[in-house]
Amino acid sequence: MTAQALIHVPKKAKRGEVIEIRTMISHVMETGFRRSQSGEPIPRNIIANFACTYNGVEIFRAELFPAMTANPFLIFRTVAVESGTLAFKWTGDNGFAAEQSVKIEVG
Amino acid sequence: MAQTKKPFEGRGWTRRGVLGAGLAAIPAGAALTLIVRPAEATPETMKDAIKKVVGDAEIRKGRVKLDLPPLSENGNSVACAVTVESPMSAADHVKAIHLFNEKNPQPNVISVHLGPRAGKARIDTRIRLSDTQTVTAIAQMSDGSFWSASANVIVTLGACLEDNPT
Fold first, then answer.
1. Whole-Å CA distances, B66 to A46, B62, B124
2. pLDDT digits (tens, 9 = 90+) for A57-76
3. Nearest CA in chain B to A71
4. pLDDT of amino acid A80
5. How close, in Å, is residue A40 to chain B by CA atoms?
6. How far is B46 from chain A (nearest CA, A)?
7. What is the largest CA-CA distance in chain B?
8. Three-class SS of B18-48
9. How many CB pairs under 8 A join A and B?
10. Which tens digit of pLDDT belongs to each residue from B17-67?
11. Residue B157: what pLDDT?
């Protein structure tokens, strides 16, 4: 399954600056509490975990529940410490996994 | 051909009577659908979920700011921001922020884990709310203390209702 992720991180930042990281990924986030037209329960299918690493060090982690909207959207912050890579990973039901990374230049 | 009676004659079947009987049957049907629906979270289940995170520690009001619209037209997407007052230093920072609701089928919304490298203890996200209810944010500090804030949201169209013919 391919999921499209949108990530917004400033390309350049000053050392020590707090930068804003915006993430959104396409996903139905089926709650597992709904029923189909024929009355069958629709099984849960959500992204349950999200993590962000900065040059390999985890800086942010989240556990998501069905009360998150479809296409989960999350903004968080980090201190720009050094140039490198911010890597994002989403995992969830039915073996869902998506990874993406962006480069940042810190001067 | 001894009997030429009309089907309902003489049995008290009137138009009014039939309609009345139909109306009387509705509460029975409603009761059945209530049993089929999944159990909703209640303020009690929210308390239990909070207890699982907090344990026996005291939860104090303050230091946390929960930004939610007072009124939301669409419960499927409610913008939500949690800001915690903290220097975010190695010695004093926010370790986690948890978000809970009262009336969705499940009390948890999201739990995030952060640290001094966050620089600023704030998250923005979008959540689903099934009904008008109180949302609670709890922040866990590095010194082990817990702080909270709550906000009430009036939801005009709840999440879960669309495409859900129950």
1. 25, 10, 10
2. 999 999 999 999 999 999 99
3. B126
4. 95
5. 11
6. 13
7. 100
8. HHHHHHHHHHHHHHHHHHHCCCCCCHHHHHH
9. 95
10. 666 665 555 554 444 444 444 556 678 888 889 999 898 889 999 899 999
11. 85
Looking at this predicted complex, what is its ipTM? 0.92
| Identity of the residue numbered A60 | F
Encoding tokens for residue A79?
């201190």
Q: For chain B, say whether A23 makes contact (Cβ under 8 Å).
A: no
What residue segments make up the domains of chain B, in order of their start?
Answer: 43-157
Q: How far apart are CA A55 and CA A107, in angstroms?
A: 16
Who among A34, A72, A76 is closest to B164 (CB)?
A34
CATH architecture of B43-157: Sandwich (2.60)
Are β-strands A96-106 and B64-67 bridged in parallel, bridged antiparallel, or unpaired? unpaired
Q: Which of A23, A24, A73, A64 shows the shortest CA–CA distance to A46?
A: A64
**pTM of the predicted structure, to 2 decimals:** 0.80
> What pLDDT score was predicted for residue B25?
55
Which one of A65, A78, A81 makes the best mutation probe of the B interface by having the most chain B beta carbons within 10 Å?
A65
Domains of chain A, earliest start first: 5-32+41-106 (2.60.40.10)
Q: Which of A51, A22, A80 is nearest to B124 (CA)?
A: A22
